[in-house]
Design brief:
This is Peptidase A1 domain-containing protein. With 425 residues, this protein is mainly beta. 7% of the residues lie in helices and 36% in strands.
Length: 425
């Protein structure tokens, strides 16, 4: 993942386990949990789940006994959920583990530590107290380190005791200002320790609105109709650069307006090392493409917009290290320029990016009477990432259904600010 943020407000039950291992009664798992999502940070009652996004997606909840409100990044691109547990040296909220009577550290000899951590990129180890120690690292160079533990999580009125998470006491942030708004991260990929795997739901969905609008997050069966499905790609053999726990789909082509980029199919296939997979990642803001595909898209978009956009000619300016196609747009412009849509063609489904989602205003960058806006597709190779990543900015106003049981993702264009009405919100 590249950037990570999201918020939940909840209350917890006071249940514990002497072994420190999870125990989930599948008969008690709710059939569906429907949660209101907001694109503004708001104070809400414990039964509500506001969902916000600007440069990141954030959720607020309460953990522990008595419950402590925490803020977590919703991230489909990573596995282990974690909370910052050490206030020393960090300018961010913390989870006070020693104030929770239901908090239990995981022993390093337990199956949770020896077996369930197998999908983590760095193997778990034992610390000096014989607790399960873990180190997490992310593509934006940030990292987090601490111990596995279990405690009570509750949201939307449903209790989930003995949930495994990382209680982190050190790390490095690549964006301290953004991270100061969150307590940790909620991992939602397909790994055994992810939040969705532990909760026992076979399906979850979300719909991300544009700014200042309401959206929705659903755990369980939403019965949303009109979805086009694309199968998840699975490789049983471990490969060094293939993330088997990710939501990997098959990208088959890209088009600008009605022009399909002339690219060989092989460019979208993972190679013998696993490099080149396409991942759907709510923890990354924009979409990243491998070099050849990015260059072709960049050239075609610049060509088709040559009459309405003025390229920002500065070879030393690269937004967020990966976005080098930027434009000068007059601050006096009365209307947004008409832009060609970019279509991402998957096997069985398509995501179309239009309008304001194609350009992003760079804060603090002005040239004379012009502001700088950058194309929201970037070159992953400039960041040293050998993969295609579909970020949450391009999932706006798209119903995204993650079907773990049938190993597929469903998509449909929809007004996300209205989607909650069908659930009585």
């Amino acid at each position: 993942i590249l950037s990570r943020r999201t918020f939940l407000s909840l209350s917890s039950s006071s249940s514990s386990s002497s072994s420190g291992l999870p125990s989930r009664d599948s008969s008690r798992i709710p059939l569906i949990l429907v949660l209101p999502l907001k694109t503004q940070v708001i104070q809400s009652a414990p039964s509500e789940l506001p969902f916000t996004h600007n440069v990141t997606l954030t959720i607020s909840l309460a953990v522990g006994t008595p419950p402590q409100n925490v803020t977590m990044v919703l991230d489909t691109g990573s596995e282990l959920s974690w909370l910052q547990c050490n206030a020393t040296g960090f300018k961010r909220p913390v989870f006070k583990w020693n104030s929770s009577s239901s908090y239990i550290p995981v022993d390093c000899s337990s199956p949770t530590c020896t077996t369930q951590t197998r999908d983590l990129s760095i193997p778990a180890s034992c610390d000096s107290k014989n607790f399960c120690h873990t180190v997490l690292s992310y593509a934006d160079a940030s990292s987090s380190e601490g111990n596995l533990a279990v405690d009570n999580f509750t949201f939307s009125g449903s209790k989930f005791p003995r949930t495994i998470f990382g209680c982190m006491d050190s790390g490095f942030s690549s964006d301290a200002e953004e991270d100061s708004k969150t307590t940790g991260l909620m991992g939602m990929n397909r790994g055994s320790l992810s939040f969705i795997s532990q909760m026992g739901f076979k399906k979850f969905s979300y719909c991300i609105s544009g700014s200042d609008r309401s959206g929705i997050l659903v755990f369980g069966e939403s019965n949303f109709t009109g979805l086009n499905y694309t199968s998840l790609i699975e490789i049983s053999t471990p490969l060094p650069y293939f993330n088997r726990a990710a939501y990997t789909v098959q990208l088959e082509g890209i088009k600008v307006a009605e022009t399909s980029l002339q690219l060989p199919k092989s460019i979208f296939e993972p190679d013998h090392t696993g490099a080149g997979q396409t991942m759907v990642d709510s923890g990354t803001q924009f979409t990243l493409l491998l070099g050849p595909a990015y260059t072709a898209l960049r050239n075609e978009f610049a060509k088709q917009t040559g009459g309405v956009l003025r390229v920002f000619e500065d070879p030393d300016f690269v937004f967020q290290g990966a976005f080098d196609l930027c434009f000068r747009i007059s601050k006096n412009a009365t209307a947004a320029p008409e832009l060609p849509a970019v279509g991402l063609l998957f096997r069985g489904a398509e995501i179309t990016v239009t309008g304001e989602r194609l350009l992003f205003p760079v804060a603090g960058e002005e040239r004379g009477n012009d502001s700088i806006h950058c194309f929201t597709f970037g070159n992953s190779e400039l960041l040293g990432i050998e993969a295609y990543i579909i970020g949450h900015h391009h999932q706006q106003n798209t119903w995204m259904e993650f079907d773990l049981e049938k190993s597929r993702i469903g998509v449909a264009s929809v007004r996300c600010d209205l989607a909650g009405q069908r659930f009585g919100m």
